[in-house]
Amino acid sequence: MRTVSKTVTKHDPDAGARTTSRHTKQGNLRVALIGNPNTGKSTVFNHLTGSHQHVGNWPGKTVEKKEGFCRRDGAEIQFVDLPGAYSLTAYSLEEVVSRDYLLDEKPDAIVVVVDAANLERNLYLVVQVLELNVPVILALNLFDVAVSRGIEIDIPALNERLGVRAVPTVAREGEGVDDLLDEILAVAHSLPGGEHGPQGRDFTPAAGSFCSPAPDFVLDYGEEIEAEIFPLERKIAQYPDVRGRFPQRWLAVKLLERDENVAGKLEGVRGGPALVAAGEEGADRIRARTGEDAENLLADRRYLWINGVVTDTVTKTGPEGPTLSDRIDRIVTHRYFGIPIFLFVMWAVFKLITDVSLPFVDWVDATVNGPIAAWARDLADAVGIDGTWGESLLVDGALAGVGNVLVFVPILVFLYVMLTLLEDSGYMARAAFVMDRLMHVLGLHGKSFLPLMVGFGCNVPAVYATRVLESRKDRLLTGLLLPFVTCAARLPIYILLAAVFFPRRQSTVVFAMYLLSILFVIIVGIVLSRTLFRGKERFPFVMELPPYRLPSVRSVRIHTWERTAGFLRKAGTVILGCSMVIWFLLAVPVSGEGSFADTPIDDSLFAGLSETVSPVFAPAGYNSWELTGTLVTGFVAKEIVVSTMGQVYSSAGDTGDTADDESFGEDLREIGKGFAEAGGDAILTLPRIIGIDLVSAEEEQDTALEAAIRSDFEEASSGHGSLAAFAFMIFVLLYVPCMATVAAERHEFGTKWMWASIAINLSVAWTATVLVFQVGKLLGFS
Amino acid sequence: MTLTGINKGTVVRVLQIRHDKETSQRLAELGLHLGSLVQVLSRAGQDPLLLDVKGARLALSRHLADGLVVRALGEDPTTQGKRRRLRRRRAQGA
Ligand SMILES: Nc1nc2c(ncn2[C@@H]2O[C@H](COP(=O)(O)OP(=O)(O)OP(=O)(O)O)[C@@H](O)[C@H]2O)c(=O)[nH]1
Ligand SMILES: [Mg+2]
Predict the structure, then answer these.
(1) Chain A residues near residue B21 by CB distance under 8 angstroms
(2) What span, in angstroms and rounded, lies between the C-alpha atoms of B86 and B7?
(3) CA A41 / ligand 1 centre spacing (Å)
(4) Which of A216, A676, B23, B26 shows its CA 20 to 30 Å from the CA of A637?
(5) Domain ranges in chain A?
(6) pLDDT in tens, A273-297
């Protein structure tokens, strides 16, 4: 299959209005992919279009509609991957997206991707889609799972009962996807307009008389309900505006269900309110006659009908008894073992991410600041900007900025690998199940714990991970708590300061920072859920747990690469821009005799600006422009705190170009060797998964730097250096994590909440740091 | 009796759904509707219940389970038996 693909994300509320003209012009077919959550829609979509949409083994990954194209036999088909939905009675936000797409944008055909191993429940959506009277093709996906469970489906019989074409597929392996495409094309050719696709059409019977596989699906709801559907349909037929927008019978059923969404859509349409009223009267009569609510009765009838189909078409010959998945669940979701297992898994993941990636972090760090910095200087030499501010901008600005991003990458790669494994195995959904009760204390559901755990690696992907959560309130609250989770980037600061001020209790102090982080998440969570988020709607926790699956190497590779590349793109722009600004501030003299890019750091604009901020930290014991300055640069990224310390405390200023004399080839060899060593170190860390490994993280410290840090803290706090340093670490723990996190928060939650998050972090951090210093002083700590 | 009070391993039939319209429709599309058969796979303390609903595994908060009035049909450790029973009862009940 040759595919030409292009993925477009659209946020276009009234695209439906223009779709007709657009697609008439291009003459291509628009096919929507719908189905229950986690049935493999995105996997099918990726195969058809060559895209890389998010795939994983938990319900609710796709939350926006995604478009892609597939070219075959000269025809271009536009596919639209939609969020999973359990029915067309849209309940959650992403289900509204799917339903609105089907109703408002009227795709030419709909592929319903169903879980062949779980046909009965899946057919509930299928019958509702069939009622739309749009050509439907059924993808019986996860067919391998069905086969392994001994489930046999009589496909011809199913086709006949539903009036559709069903194609067995194993989308993960790409099996059957070609056949599916053939069926789609067959439908395309049978549409009015033939070869070149259909022209614009509506749901009126006259225009809809295409010889498609499913033009006239009718599910018999039984006498009491049919007696109401028929008059409603007649009434709908009287209003052309309504008739043109919705399939009649489907609309009649929705009116009897008193569907609010549909009522909303009908509001401004001529005849709409009258129809809604007629629907309510009909529902009342049904209730009076049967004693049941119409919507409950409708659901019951649908299942009754489906049960008949399933009884006739599905046979199960597989082994009796619980599946392997059930057996694993008995342990993993166990009343007492569940939480310990969850914590162990999370802890192991966290340990693996930090321990295994740290040698690679050091390697990237060494490579960027060694050979690559030297090459940059050579390059500056070659183009004749050697020794000018241009070189400084290149090396101290751009390179330092990009370098900081690159230092993140090894951590992120391992994080993404672990996340993909958690996702693809199906454990992620179990974690939510197990942690549910504990998270209630914070006003959240269990699912929120996962982004928080991710945050220990890096807050940036954690912000995006909040998409796991269904309700906006949960996403927001979790997003506001995330910055309090101490990320890997804060670790070097703790380690450095603990080495200076608490050399004998270094590990205790560092570990205390992790405990404090958890404590602050809990405290802030309790406070926020009882103030800002009090009484906000809570999504009732109901979630399907997919069966466990063995993650495939291919999907881990693709995911990790996609996510890493995405991070590089995003963080690269933000961090690069910010580091240029800081370089500029350090280069501009505001006093003394220095000139641009050649000024003592004390005279720089940076020092000047820091001095205006530093009095704020007087009650916390570290009122010095150097320390304040490091905190200010720490806004950009926490690694910069340590590097800024190195800059502002070094009187010599020059780091020395030791790598300069080596040839390019030698440099490359060094880099390769460093990578091999990092790999070796990483493997060595594997068996040592106990405690935070401070020994290897602590490199030969510049004693001059240590002394400078100590004296500055002692001076600024007038003799309470250690206490001030501890207060400083707490501020680092609690204040705004980094620009990339802020940018991610803005992207996910909007500008208003981004500022709210910054305000919460700064106020909590300042209050805590001042409290620690003042109370500590009273208690006599130094 | 509501679903919360049902023991592990028991198969029940849903008799009544005491939830608002939206919630009951949501439950219905997940397979929990009037007359549906459900097996409780695990119930522990304040945790959500783990259910077998039409062959799928469903985690359901206790709040939601409280609103489901059910009748116990007896213990049935295997899903397979449940499915067979489901079909038989459906055939008889309809
Ligand atoms: N064994 C097997 N696994 C499959 C098949 N198709 C998809 N999967 C896996 O099923 C899981 C769900 O696939 P997705 O494509 O993410 O499902 P989706 O329908 O897009 O899910 P949402 O967007 O969350 O609604 C992934 O772990 C896939 O690797 C299949 O045919 N066989
Ligand atoms: Mg998807």
Answers:
(1) 258, 293, 295
(2) 19
(3) 7
(4) A676
(5) 9-207, 223-316, 344-655+701-778
(6) 899 999 999 999 999 998 888 888 9
